[in-house]
Amino acid sequence: MSPRPALPLRLEYVILGLVRRQPVHGYELLQQWNDANQIGIVWHVKPGPLYSALEKLEQRGYIQAIVVHGDSTPQRKEYHATPLGEQAFLDWMKTPVSAARDFRQDFLSRLFFARDVDQALVKELISRQEHICQKWLKSLEKQLNSITGFEQQVLSFRIHQVLGILEWLQELPDKNIQIS
Question: Which stretches within 61-118 are classed as H helix?
């Protein structure tokens, strides 16, 4: 076991979302992910991290690999989501992003899978995310009064980012959320 603490699952949830759509082997998964008309518009992944994440998901019981023998191709693993993986994915879809710096990849990744889940779940996610953003904003505004100089400029920038996120989130329900 590595002495480093495990990073939170991030790209693993995107993999789960793609695998639960249809069983897929690693190379196909990499192609699907990096398609600029799909999740690749938000997040590009390299083969090493993708295959490492597949291994982690398999070890946790979230996916199962089945060896498929091909007539003209070498055998390869085809990944299938397990019930445990399905539940982990749905739990992730319900969970708002906890830090503004992670919003672009993490929230847009959830939104990418919005059409794959109950729309009530997506609307609840958006509502919870708005609430979290309001907390971020209050915290940043409180800090703004106690600093000066460049630090104040950086904080002002972060406040405007959060305000932009909030404005964008508030527009989503008006746009019939089923995305992707």
Answer: 83-94, 103-112
